[in-house]
Amino acid sequence: MKYYMMLFCLLTIVTACGGPSVAIEVDPEQTRIIHEEQIDMISVFVRLENNGQIPANDLTARFLIHEPTIESAVGGSEIVFTDHEHTPEIFQVNANSSFFFAEVFSLETDVTNELLSGSFTVQIMDRQGEIIADYLIEQVTNE
Hints:
Layout: H1 2-17, E1 24-26, E2 32-36, E3 41-50, E4 56-65, H2 68-74, E5 78-80, E6 91-93, E7 97-106, H3 113-116, E8 120-125, E9 131-137, E10 140-142
Parallel strand pairs: 2-10
Antiparallel strand pairs: 1-3, 2-3, 3-7, 4-5, 4-6, 4-8, 8-9
């Protein structure tokens, strides 16, 4: 009986610890909106980090716009990160590595840095469409 109790405890501990995992996070220092006022454009730069022990494969990204003026300026409230053929860009982040991507928007109306700050959320989804990272972008710089 003692043997089975010890075996049960050992299996419980091993199961609770789990195996290797993916740990995708948005880097708050590098992720930002660059407002290029001279040419009426903004660039949204996102840097992801995978602090996990296995690669994160088949990821996609989208931007949610929360401010009506910005939504009008970029032409929508949800913008999927796409390739040159306008299909969702599928990417991966290797274990203990980072990945950087950007999306550029032409502005149809004038906007301020104050309005841009906090107006974009970037969401990273896995192959099942589950959100594995979600970040409100507040940092805005000028170029």
